Amino acid sequence: MSSHSLSKSQSLRGLQCHKSLWLYKNSPDLRTEPGESQLAVFAEGREVESLGQKLFPDGIKIEFHGSDFNEKITQTKKLIESGVKTIYEATFQYDDVLVMVDILHKRKDGWGLYEIKSSTEPKDTHKEDIAIQYCVLKGQGLDLATASLIHINKKYIRNGGLEIDQLFTIVDLTDDAIQRQKQVKENLSLMKKALNQKSPDIVIGPHCLAPYECDFKEHCWDNLPEPSVFNLSGLWASKKFDLYSRGIVDVKELPKDYKLTPFQQAQVKAEQTDKDIIDRKSLKAFLDEEISYPLYFLDFETIQPVIPAFDGLNPNSFIPFQYSLHWQEHEGGKLEHSEFLAKEGTDPREEFVKKLISDVPNDVCILTYNQKFEKGRLKALAKQFPVYSERIMNIHDHIVDLMIPFQKAYVYKKPQQGSYSIKYVLPAFIPDDPELDYKELKISNGMEASNTYANLHLNKNGDEVSKVRVDLLKYCWLDTYAMVKLLEKLKEIS
Length: 494
Fold this sequence. Notes:
Shape: globular
Largest sheet: 7 strands, mixed
Distance between the termini: 71 Å
CATH topology of the largest domain: Nucleotidyltransferase, domain 5
Structural class: alpha/beta
Strand content: 15-25%
């Protein structure tokens, strides 16, 4: 019992794709390392798991670090035999499959296993997860009565301290787990067989993307041309794979009668002709009809914790903590700037609002990039702070989206790579400008900014905190300054 063929997480990987499982076990160096957003999800998952275990207090935790799996299995057995009622990370192995149970709790009718997830509803992959655990625990002869999922209650609203029993919802999935047992055993057997053979010859398909994007995707897709049909912006994955199955891979090979959106048409045309796409009439109409002075350029940064951080918030509520604001009183006038960055570890919302409405006059034109985001945050703030709602909604109602000329392909350049995100648009239209290079910043994207701020209150070194705050301000400053320069470029093109 010194080794195991499969862990629970590896089994779930194998359910998605046998090739992914084989590569994970045999060629892990080909795996793409998790990015900032994934690491944040992992950290959040650990936080949720720790809170969820409080539903069954006074349990004994088998620590992940400090011992091998055999020791953990032995420790689990000893705790069960000694009469311990609740064990966190109880470890079992059966038929070369290893699982660690978030919560194992002794009931009157036997043991209950509980899997904790940070989602707000059960997903099929969660059910598969629990069914594998059920298989292993029953195989080991444990008197297992129930198998349940603990997930976040999306309707929970924080009011004071966290109410753990209200924050979580427990769903009994015992019957579902039992019904899946035959298929679970067949799947595990097939996975073990695949691992004892050469790398499975599996072509790319929807399984590369669902239920999670595979971390071997870059390896398996490295023979695709650039750009391929998979780079087509906004095209359903099913349509991309349909084209691929028909042997249509290169964007330039798309049939002339293939139905595309205006943006997709611009993307394809730019690739086929190697020329920029410019619709000067539409661009000029946008600039003339939508842009007026005084002109304000606005960008928000937010955190979105699954655990409500402050009163009045649901799980996964957006919390704006920072903004940057550039403005000009008249065209070609002096460029002014103001900004806000909340003190870490505090509820930033009201201070954010008060500073914003003092910085932005009524009835002025306000440019954002992807207005849906800023408008959504403003609507939420207006509801949360009705005393300021009129001023907040005045800002909301005067927002113009600078993304529109790019989203609607009034202008398009090949270096955009099928994206109208500002991170692609900016270097495409204003290349080689070090002042506009996000890569030169210590914080270079919104996810990194959010994660940095969310964890900043944990840093007790005042000097380090001050330096990080400067980095956050630099990043957000560039987001609005980039809009200033992009508008100048659009005027030049028109």
